[in-house]
Specification:
By secondary structure, the protein is an all-alpha fold. Helix content is 76%, strand content 3%. It is flat and about 55 Å long.
Length: 238
């Protein structure tokens, strides 16, 4: 087995377990079944359900960090390179997030169909409601994909900055940027750019698409940051 194939298989098995087995089989599917049983058994007065919250607020950002952090030393010790690790992580990570979002939307479509036909009293809450209050499979799926990209790419980008710069320097940098932004905002320097942005009238679909592209760009930016990185974060080497 080549080192490239071995690295790819290592990350694939980890993603399959974390996003496929743990998140989908043990959390999302039982949560969906619970909402269906509740909605068909009780009159919930149009209660909004959410089966995407575990993925949005924990699992996808968490995998964006731990999926790489835990496997980097293992992949290198087995003969893989950091470049192979990064490329495999990008491909498998993004593909796994997309597959999960597809299954998630099929389950949400099931919940909405039961509610729309009067079988269940439980509807769904979704970021796609900013686009349309009526459930639409493809637009809602696209929005979930874009949210997945910004969560996965953003979390990994922040982790890589902390990995290379150290927690202390990262926090100092964040505070410098935040304080500078406060001075620029309250001094009126940002009034013109903010006013210009408000005139663009960006709709929800465009906004989510821009966010997804930003997440993908952040993910790809980590390649030059991590391709020659040490096996240990900076704070552990100081």
């Amino acid at each position: 087995m080549s080192s490239t194939h071995g690295t790819f298989r290592l990350i694939y098995e980890d993603a399959s377990w974390f996003l496929g087995k743990l998140l989908l089989l043990y959390i999302t599917l039982p949560l969906t079944a619970a909402w269906i049983i509740i909605g068909t058994s009780f009159d919930m007065d149009k209660t909004l359900s959410s089966i995407s919250s575990p993925a949005y607020f924990f699992f996808i950002p968490f995998y964006g960090v731990m999926g790489f952090k835990s496997l980097l030393p293992i992949a290198v010790s087995l003969g893989g390179t950091r470049t192979q690790m990064l490329k495999s992580f990008y491909v498998i990570g993004v593909s796994s997030v997309f597959v999960y979002m597809l299954v998630l939307n099929l389950l949400q479509c099931l919940l909405w169909t039961l509610y729309d036909r009067g079988v269940s009293s439980v509807s769904i809450t979704h970021a796609g409601m900013f686009h349309s209050s009526e459930y639409q499979f493809l637009p809602y799926l696209w929005i979930d994909l874009m949210v997945g990209l910004i969560l996965f790419g953003g979390a990994f980008f922040i982790y890589c900055i902390t990995y290379r710069a150290g927690m202390t320097r990262t926090l100092i940098g964040i505070m410098i940027i935040a304080i500078a932004a406060m001075f620029l905002y309250y001094s009126g320097v940002l009034e013109a750019p903010i006013a210009w942005l408000s005139t663009l009238n960006i709709n929800a679909m465009t906004g989510f698409t821009i966010a997804g592209i930003a997440g993908l760009a952040a993910l790809l930016t980590t390649y030059p940051m991590m391709r020659n990185a040490s096996l240990q974060p900076k704070q552990q080497r100081e």
